[in-house]
């Protein structure tokens, strides 16, 4: 098979790395890709014009297109490939609203009794502020649309919540993504990510994982795309796992079918494990980043037939997927300043030394080739990932990898997995 992967981050490098291990695969292309992906796939310099992409895929005999990020999914890239009769992995435009509109997701949860925080949706700032004054709990104010993980603002006081409403609805910091907002009550507990593959009827759960969203140690600083991840997440017991499948995953998939939006692809459920059980914080319609960097190294089975089965709706024939028993940890090395403005073009050294450590993989995120050098080209630069017999050792090994790598002003969290370690 010839496979095209769309995207350029650590998630996509991990996808390409895993796909390259499939005996079914002949050639992998990626657009736009990064310097790490370029070592295993041919980079195709294409823009985000779907018509041009599908023309290229057709003329290049692409058998499967895998879409990494949410933006093209929400914009309907799958529909364009499907109309042309080409296989593409991910939900179509209607189904991708599960991530593309927080209000859509909340309505679906309400209609299907899926546990989540109480909420209200507003497009008028005065009405939103009046509502805030009537609530006596802390809230989270969320831009309805896609805002690269940055559209969620805590409102722990009336002033803070009011400011969040103004940031989104009045200042329009997130543009059209902030045409409306969801205000929901704060949930207290420990977070966990739950990832499943689904063909719209059948669901195959992945092993559990957890990311670290805040930029600095102790979960302080600013919200980021994710500064590290680990798998398994000990908070997700077998009992909770069964509950989430029964009370969240299947009702979501069935609920989407009921309204004519069959969801095929990766359903990522962000959960808060509260005293009264798991509650949904968000749905994503694609693999998590950096969760993918710890999930796929643990997957023993071939990913390619699983993705094809999601498209063909034959996932029930693949219930025998297998996992490595080892744990995985990923430490993200970011550009100094991220998630605030940062500089790029810094030369990266020590990659080969890190990769030489047993069971360490360096997944590239924001990197590019500059002559003989690999240089930084984004906020999150690398995801240094290790597999080991237990989580503590996996974390130590990932940090051993990090210690060999250098670029000017590199920043990384020193406490990846601390919650998990305190549970073990
Ligand atoms: P989201 O993109 O909706 O998952 O929100 C991003 C992050 O904000 C989550 O990972 C949580 O850490 C936090 N968050 C969002 N909604 C809530 C909530 N209702 N209660 C507590 N934390 C929340
Ligand atoms: N790591 C969180 C996400 O991918 O949305």
What can you see in these coordinates?
The protein has 14 helices and 22 strands. The radius of gyration is 21 Å and the shape is globular. It folds into 4 domains: 2-92, Rossmann fold; 124-179, ATP-grasp fold, A domain (Dna Ligase, domain 1, 2-Layer Sandwich), CATH 3.30.1490; 190-317, ATP-grasp fold, B domain (D-amino Acid Aminotransferase, Chain A, domain 1, 2-Layer Sandwich), CATH 3.30.470.20; 327-423, Glycinamide Ribonucleotide Synthetase, Chain A, domain 4 (Alpha-Beta Complex), CATH 3.90.600. It has a 5-stranded parallel β-sheet with strand order 3-2-1-4-5. With 424 residues, the chain is of the alpha+beta class. Bound molecules: adenosine monophosphate and glycine. Adenosine monophosphate is lined by residues 117, 140, 142, 152, 184, 186-187, 191, 213, 270, 272, 281-282. Glycine (GLY) binds next to loops.
Key terms for this structure?
Rossmann fold; 31% helix; five-stranded parallel beta sheet; 424 residues; five-stranded antiparallel beta sheet; Dna Ligase, domain 1; binds adenosine monophosphate; alpha+beta; 22 strands; 4 domains
